[in-house]
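Project standup — Tuesday

K.O.: blocked on the structure for the chain from last sprint. Re-posting the sequence here as requested.
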Amino acid sequence: MSGTGSIGAPVRGAARATALVAVVASSACYATLAVLTRLAYRAGMQPMSLLAWRFILACALMTAVQCVRRMGDLRVPLADVGRFVVLALVGYGAGSVCFFLALRHADASVVAVLLYTYPALVAVIDRIFAGVPLGPWRIAALVMTFAGCALAVGAGSSGVRTDVLGILFGLGSGLGYAVFSVLLHRWLPGRQRTVIMAYLFGVAGIAFAVAALVSGGTMSTSGWSSQAWTILALVVLLPTFLAVLLYLGGMRTLGAAQAALVSSLEPLFTIALAAVLLGERMSPDRWVGVALVVAGVVIAEWRAAPGNVEIAAGL
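H.V.: unblocked you, prediction finished:
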């Protein structure tokens, strides 16, 4: 991807290795979100206010980065602003809300796996609304993904913290990000990703702040403990700001298709962190489920046409 956000030809050697490390690091950063959110709930933080402050602060950081790069690019056509609003509310915002609510009803490792249904859901959406043929490889990927989810959420297992709402919200997070990915690819091809994300973060932050106040909550941070502030700082820096910048940087060299493929490591990082920090444990059948989900993502991405894969950009 060039400096303006277009995808360039892959290169070899040290630059490619650096890009690969960047995307893996991005996956590890984003994988912290589920664990940090669970810790935030333990510290007494509420979903809407946490989401609002996450995106408001991330917007400030992303805008600062773009100002250093090229401030003038932040001026965008009015039509694009309308699209940013729709993407922020219907796609990215809806996926974020479902993800945060799912963590109230299910283990972090389960929610992370359910989120990763979104590459398969992108294929389904493209088939229904754009007539894009699935083909045998995509069908196989869909079957593997959803079979893996059934095992990963603990179907037939004991000791798994999840319920129907956890599963529905988890799948809803995948659907929200799938809608975001499809609309991003169709509405805003070639736009700078840092500019897009600065606007999306800003719109989402305002929307969640309003939602917090309307629902009887508060945006006040006066009662927050030092632990809550630390968690918020980590949520903004790791799974939001750094995850996006590292991914976009790696995608410039690897291309969107290969970067999305590498990002399928993310659920594995979440599971490892959840085991260490939250004490969550995976049974053998759930590990089989995780393997099936990751394999489904790999197959879907590997067989996809490079020019059509924008699945994970900006997540």
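K.O.: great, moving the ticket to review. The chain has a mean pLDDT of 83. DSSP finds twelve helices and no strands in the chain.
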